[in-house]
Amino acid sequence: MKRVVVLNVVGLTKSVLGVHTPRINGFLEEGEVSTFAPAFPAVTCTAQSSYLTGAREAEHGIVANGWYDREAAEVKFWKQSNHIVQGEKIWDKLRREVPGFTCAKLFWWYNMYATADWTITPRPMYPADGSKVFDVYTQPMEMREQIKMDLGNFPFTTFWGPNASIPSSEWIAESAKWVEQKHQPTLSLVYLPHLDYGLQKFGPGAPEMDVEIQRIDTVVGELIDYFEAREVEVVLLSEYGISKVDKPVHLNRIFREKGWITIKEEQGTEMLDCGASKVFAVADHQVAHVYLNDASLRDEVIEVLSGTPGVEEIRTAEESFGLSVQCSVDGVQSQHGETNQQSSVALQRSGDLIAVSEENAWFTYYYWLDDALAPDFARCVDIHRKPGYDPVELFLDPALKSPKLKIAQFLLKKKLGFRALLDVIPLDASLVKGSHGRDKVCEDEQPIYATRGKHMPVNAAEEVFERICAAVKV
């Protein structure tokens, strides 16, 4: 039985390749590389779900990294249950068709309760005292303590936030070797996020990226050597490219000025009340899902979005995730198609309208008009509480005179049992220099699928599924 490892190197595109990627270059020169239009939106959860189900977004239902739950009237981001993803997963299909097939899914999203044989995913513990304890979740459950005993604790603070850096990808790489040594999976799915951090923080082409690219090239090169020495075929894959940006767009502030946003005051700060708002946006990089609790405002919302600098395109939910109805800033064009049970799930999750930014723009979740009234979580790394994605979490507030001292004081208070906020994140969206999410990008910013030998071309995100299946079954 042929064995395969898929190295998902986030942000790896032709635009990144060069003198700082000698190991990756060597691999690509000996094989075949496909570039393809990314999933829409071109974000982690959507892309990975397309790869692992072979279905389009309308079918697997993952319309973003997070969305508004209309029944609960809450925005839910970065949930982890694999049950959220509709459709048959690649490991279930291959288990039916290939006797003895096994799969390891390491740090890919929607990893909890997946039916893969071995899984690891970041998962903090949240005790009743309000604290947060960094940890991982594994299946089988006993693997958690075994792998931590051998590799040490997962360096959680380097996985996201101002300290995001190479140690998290290095630990994940070591975990892939650890699982290989103990279990020899038929298919190993390995997520390496490092490039994502610097490309969003510094921007493509920034001089600071040279060393970051070299670091991930080293990790990838070592994994290629390790797995090929064990006669495991290596596939290099990515999810999207990063575009250089310099224009944050604050849709919720615009909607608030129109009187469509409802704000609830809580202890001197402002909280967005989605359920009571007439219109609001859930921002996810360069795509924003716009929800209309008051459908009578639809035409006016389209007019406002059309006139907003930084908005390039407006799509309807039906166009993207169900019936094909196109709506752009240049006008409205209708086409008719078919929906199914899966696409109705996608339509329920999707915004009524989807705004797509210009190439150099991205959407914030910001809704307050005065920074003094921003919610307490705005200045913290808090990926679940914020009603949208916040790449500003990659930065320490430059206005802080002694950020290290502030962090040390927070850790001391935490150790002593006091509650405290690690409020070190700035509220300056102009700091962000890279973003993604658009599906209409140049070839140099498209994701790649590469193997040492020949493979059938990949023309769309969902085709990755069949290419991986074919690699295992050859």
From TrEMBL:
PANTHER family: BIS(5'-ADENOSYL)-TRIPHOSPHATASE (PTHR10151:SF120), ECTONUCLEOTIDE PYROPHOSPHATASE/PHOSPHODIESTERASE (PTHR10151). This is Alkaline phosphatase family protein. It comes from Rubritalea profundi. It comes from the Bacteria. One of its GO terms (molecular function) is hydrolase activity. The lineage of its organism: Bacteria, Pseudomonadati, Verrucomicrobiota, Verrucomicrobiia, Verrucomicrobiales. SUPFAM superfamilies: Alkaline phosphatase-like.
